[in-house]
Design brief:
The protein is built from 16 helices and 12 strands. With 442 residues, it is an alpha+beta fold. It has one domain: Cytochrome p450 (Orthogonal Bundle), CATH 1.10.630.10. Helix 6 (110-134) runs parallel beside helix 16 (393-410). The radius of gyration is 22 Å and the shape is globular. The mean pLDDT is 88.
Length: 442
């Protein structure tokens, strides 16, 4: 009996030696779309020095996200690995990842989320008052301050965190995340690496202060750090100070970078779609005199549709990298051990076979009453999926919803003319000219 010939690797080009097609990948928003048009739903390239297979679609997402630790393992660019730190949940795998995730998820349980709402309202109102005073503003940098203040307060108990040295160091750190990992004083990575050391020193001081306070006062946990300090696994073990530092840094990144992008996407799409904006405002009139709670937020069904469509239309994360642990096959092609895999969120969200007229902003596509048939699983994946689905997914949804509800009830904004609204996509999507608006009271 003759053995069947091995499957081929997907079509595509590995590009230049070592560099591959990395420069095109980071420089051309249409990089993947052009290659999908040419090669189909799966193609090979070379990114960041490694042969990589890029695939899109719900079934591709399912295959990658449900085979974690079997065929695939999470992978990040070298710069991200060094700046997040070895103990970060984002880099942990296998049993350690599962164990630590159970500890950290306690900070995002419904009871914790409910108690975060008053602080979210207070910070949102403070910023809205500030924007009213300014009148016209570049909104994106303001939204970055807003989300960092929220993260600082709810994750660490820090007031006005964006105005502290920690906020300054964090901005420098963020700018080096996706960079060439050359640790020299004048490089983006070198500056970010030094900022990481300063951030960790400050985080250690905060953590040890909180440990002392807790032992003296036995105060109830009212922020994520407080909850993580007391969280125990089934063996009664807690996170060490070294682990807490890397995990808090990860939470700050996840609760700042991607959330800023999502909020900016909401503000931009609403300004560009007055009909949907009016419908969202009309819904809020039903809740005008009701306090914001998890229950009332859940009842805002049209706002829920809008936010799902915003996250489909401009997903904060474009995809996710994995390393191939063992040879496997998908779609009639071989995926070799040691290669990289990139599953694509943005290309899936723009797949016309899943979302008709994908370039049209249409919240009605998420109206369950009007859906003739269910979409396949893993078709709408702004938070990823499987065992590595975004830990703070429900917190992110809560922050966006509180922010959106308060803005829709009380404020109006319009885009200023003569600005470039095209999106820069690294590390997360943002309007090129920082989203300039005129902000006022309704």
């Amino acid at each position: 009996m003759v053995n069947a010939a091995p499957l081929p690797t997907p079509p595509g080009s590995l590009g230049l030696p070592f560099l591959g097609e990395t420069l095109e990948f980071f420089g051309d928003r249409q990089f993947a779309q052009k290659r999908h048009d040419r090669y189909g739903a799966i193609f090979k390239t070379q990114l960041l020095g490694r042969p990589t297979i890029v695939l899109k679609g719900p079934e591709a997402n399912r295959f990658v996200l449900t085979n974690e630790n079997k065929y695939f393992q999470v992978s990040w660019p070298p710069s991200v690995k060094q700046l997040l730190g070895p103990l970060s949940l984002a880099l942990q795998t296998g049993g350690i990842h599962a164990q630590r995730r159970k500890l950290l998820v306690q900070a995002f349980a419904p009871r914790a989320l409910e108690q975060y709402i008053p602080t979210l309202e207070q910070i949102t109102q403070r910023y809205c008052d500030r924007w009213l005073t300014q009148g016209t503003l570049a909104w994106f940098p303001e939204l970055r301050h807003y989300t960092f203040d929220v993260a600082g307060q709810l994750f660490m108990g820090l007031t006005n965190a964006s105005e502290t040295p920690l906020g300054h160091w964090f901005e420098i750190w963020s700018q080096g995340l996706f960079s060439i990992p050359l640790n020299l004083p004048w490089t983006r990575f070198g500056k970010a690496y030094r900022s990481r050391r300063l951030i960790l020193t400050e985080l250690e001081r905060l953590i040890r202060d909180r440990q002392t306070q807790r032992s003296e006062e036995s105060a109830p946990a009212d922020d994520a750090l407080g909850i993580m300090l007391t969280a125990e696994d089934e063996n009664g073990e807690r996170l060490t100070v070294e682990e807490l530092k890397d995990q808090v840094l990860l939470l700050l990144f996840a609760g700042h970078e991607t959330l800023t992008s999502a909020l900016a996407a909401f503000c931009l799409t609403m300004a560009q779609h007055p009909e949907q904006l009016a419908a969202a405002r009309a819904e809020q009139k039903q809740f005008q005199n009701q306090p914001l709670t998890l229950e009332t937020l859940k009842s805002m069904t049209y706002l829920e549709q809008i936010l799902k469509e915003v996250l489909r239309f401009i997903p904060p994360v474009g995809g996710g990298f994995r390393t191939v642990l063992q040879d496997c096959d998908y779609g009639g092609y071989r995926i070799p051990e040691g290669w990289g895999v990139l599953y694509e969120i943005n290309q899936t969200h723009y797949d016309a076979a899943v979302f008709p007229d994908p370039k049209q902003f249409d919240p009605e596509r998420f109206n369950l009453e009007h859906q003739d048939e269910k979409r396949p699983p893993f078709s709408h994946v702004p938070f990823g999926g499987g065992m590595r689905e975004c830990l703070g997914k429900e917190f992110a949804r809560l922050e966006i919803k509180v922010f959106a509800a308060l803005l829709l009830r009380q404020y109006q904004w319009e885009l200023l003319p003569d600005q470039d609204l095209s999106l820069m996509v690294v590390p997360t999507p943002r309007p090129r000219d920082d989203l300039k608006v005129r902000f006022g009271k309704l």
